[in-house]
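Lab notebook, page 48
Experiment: co-folding of the full assembly
Goal: obtain a model of how the components sit together before planning crosslinking
Operator: M.T.
Materials (sequences as entered):
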Amino acid sequence: MPIQILMPALSPTMEKGNLAKWLKHEGDKVKSGDILAEIETDKATMEFEATDDGTLGKILVQEGTADVAVNTPIAVILSDGESSSDIKASALAAAKAEAPAVSHDAPAAATAAPVIHVAAETDVPEGTEMVIMTVREALRDAMAEEMRSDKDIFVMGEEVAEYQGAYKVTQGLLQEFGAQRVIDTPITEHGFAGLGVGAALAGLKPIVEFMTFNFAMQAMDQIINSAAKTLYMSGGQMGCSIVFRGPNGAAARVAAQHSQDYSSWFSNIPGLTVISPYSAADAKGLLKSAIRYPNPVIFLENEILYGQSFPVPKLDDYTVPIGKAKIARAGDTVTLVSWSMGMSYALKAADELAKEGISAEVIDLRTLRPMDTETVVNSVMKTGRCVVVEEGWQQSGVAAEVAARIMEHAFDYLDAPVGRVSQKDVPMPYAANLEKLTLPSVADVVAAVKAVCYR
Amino acid sequence: MAVAKKKPAASAARGSAPQKSSATKPVSKSAAKPPSKPAAAKPAAANSGSAKSNGVTAGLLPALSREQELAAYKQMLLIRRFEEKAGQMYGMGLIGGFCHLYIGQEAVVVGMQMALEDGDQVITGYRDHGHMIACDMDPKGVMAELTGRRGGYSKGKGGSMHMFSVEKGFYGGHGIVGAQVSLGTGLALANRYRGNDRVSLAYFGDGAANQGQVYESFNMAELWKLPVIYIIENNRYAMGTSVTRSSAQTDFSKRGISFNIPGEKVDGMDVRAVKDAGERAVKWCREGNGPFILEMMTYRYRGHSMSDPAKYRTREEVEKVRGEQDPIEQVRLRLIETKRATEDDLKKIDAQVRAVVNDAAEFATNDPEPDPSELWTDVVR
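Observation: model returned without errors.
Model output:
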C-alpha cells in the first residue's frame, strides 16, 4: 500500500511550517534516511528524512507552500511493485493522520492529594529506664543498631571512618563494622552523593554523611534530580532508600558559607522526606525510622545540639514515626511551632512567658515533609494564636508554609495574624555581636508572642 | 530478539592478542578470581594493524560467527527502525518534549551488550532508546513511554529520557548530563559491596565527559577498584558544539590517565571492534582490576534532538559517514560477501524488524493515557 508522508512536527511547539524545498522529485528512488525535503519552522530550517524505502510517487504539497499544518499529507511513497495508479484519491483525502484524540482534562475528583497515614509512636512502657545521652551519641547508636540488623546499610562520607567523624557522630562505627561498611570518601560531595544514590538504586541502604549541609549544595543535583525523582520517573519501579544526614543551620562563628539552614530548600521537593529533630530521643528514634524508610530522607541535624543531653528511653528498638509532630509542652494561650535548634528558643520562651501568665503550647514539628498539619491546626483551634520560630530566613521559609496552612485550615479560629521569628535577611556575619543579632533569640520569641496576644 | 549475552561464569580467558572468539574457554569463577596482578597487565590501547578511516587503529579483529553477525544485524536494524519510527511519530505529534535519536550509533550498544553476562548493569543519559532495546526491553513498552501511555515502562510518567528496567539490568535513562556517571559508579560500588563479580556500564557522551562529577567518579572508582566501564560515546558534537570547540583533550580515551585508569579508543561504527574491546574491558573489570574507559568513535546522523536543525555540520559530512561507515551496512555487506546470508535472508529479517516496530507503534498509539489517579502514585513508597 502506498505510504503517506505527513507534514512533520519538528519541535514540541510546532503547529505549522513552510515546505521550503523538495530534495527528491517524483519518480526518485528513496531509501530510509534520505533527506526528502527542507521544512521551515518558526525557529529554523530542518531537513526531513524518509523512514521508508521506495519511490517518491507523488508530491502533494509543492515547495514554497507556506503554513502547512502538521500532519497534512505532503507526499506519497510507493513500495516496490507499486505504481502511481495505486495512489487512490480516497487515500489522499484522509487528510489528518489517525493520531488518536488525546484528552488532557483529567477529572478533578481523581486528583486529590493522598492523605498520609502516620504509624503510631513506639509505646514507651511505664517505668522504662531513661538514659541521659547527647544527641551525638543518640545518632551514633541509631546507626549502629540499624547496621547490626541489616547488612545492606553502610555509612559513607568525609572523615566518617578513621577520623571517627568530623563531629564525632560516627565514633566507633569503623571499629565495629569495618572499612567495607564505614567508608571514608574524598572531598567530592557531588560525586559521592551520586555513588550513594547509585548504590541505593541497586538496592543497598546508604547513609551519606555531609560534613555540613552547606557542602551538600555541591550534591544538590544528585539529591533532587536522581534521589528524589527516580521513583516517580520510573513509574514506581525503582526508587532509593538512602539517608543524607549531617549538621544543618547556624553553627558558631563560621560565617556565611558554613552557617545556613536548608530546611525550606529540601522541604520544597516532592519525593524527599525531611526530618529535623531537636531532642536526643527524637534524633535516635527518627534516624532509625529514616534508615528503614524505603525513600530518600534528608536528616538535618544541628551542630550546637550535638553536645546537648536529653533522656532517651532504654529500649531494644526505640523508633519515632516519620511525619508526626510532638507537643513538647502543653498550653492554651498561644501555640509556638518550631523544630531543631529553634525548639531551644521556643521552650525557653515558654518558660519566660509562663512567669507572665501566658501559657504557650510548644509543638516540635520534627518532620518538615510530610508536615503534620493536623497537630498544629488542632492546637491553633484551641489557642487562636500562633508564632513560628525558624532559624533560617523568612522568605519562602518553613514558617511561611506553617502560617499558610493555619490560614487555610483554621482561619476562623485565629485571633491574630500568625507571627514569625526568624534569622535576619542577611548572610551570616562573622563578628560575634552581629551573628547574635542575626539569629532568633528567646527575647524575640517572647516579644512575638506578646504581639500576637496584643500584650 | 536480543543479542544473546553470555551465560554467567563463562568468563573467557583471553590474551591481548586477537583471537577467534571460539578460542575462549570457560573458566570457573573461583579460578578467575582473585585477580592475578602480574597477568593483568594493562591492555595495549592498540595493536598494529590497518588504520581505520576514522582514525582508530585496531588489530585484526576476531570474526563474528554467522549467528553473531545475524543477531547483531537484526538488533542494530531494530534500533534504527525503532528510532526512525519514533522520529515519524514525533512528527505526527504523538511524542512530545525532547526526543534524542540514536541513529548512527547502533554498533556501540549492540557490540557492548554482546560482551556482557546476565546480571551486568547498564546506565546511560538521555539518548537512551538504543540502550533499552539492546538490553532486551520490550519495544512496545519503550514506544508507549515515548507517547506517554500507561503501558510505557514508567507508566507514562518518565518519557523518552526516563525509563528503567531492573529486570533487564537497565538503570536509566537520566536527563542531567553526567549524572549517570556517578550513579553507574554507585552500581559498581554496590557490586563490590555485595562481593559479586557483576560489571556496570556507564555510557556518556563527549559532552558529558567534561562534567566535574565524571572525574570525581573516576577518582573513587580507581581508588576503590570498582568494576565499572566508562563508555564515552564520542559522536563529535555536544549538541551543537564540536569536541574541538569544547575539549582541551579531545582524545577521550586518555581522560583517565591521571587516575591510572586504562583507556582504549575503539571504532564504534564496527560492531566487531566494539565487542572485542568490550570483552577486554569486561574481563579487566570482572577480574577486580578496577575501572576501564572505552572511547567509542561514533556518529549520530540526526540532530541532537528533534528540534535541532544541525547547522553546525555539513550535509556532506553526514553523508560521508553514512556512506562509508554505516554500522548496519558494514554487517550487511559482510554477510552478503561471505555468502553467510542472501539478500532474501536479510529481507526477511527487515520484514520481521518492521513488524516488531509497527506493533510497538500501534500499541503506543492506541494504549490509553495513564489514569488520572496515577498523578499521585510513586512519589514515595
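Interpretation: Residues 9-53 of chain B have pLDDT under 50 and may be disordered.
Next step: discuss with group before ordering constructs.
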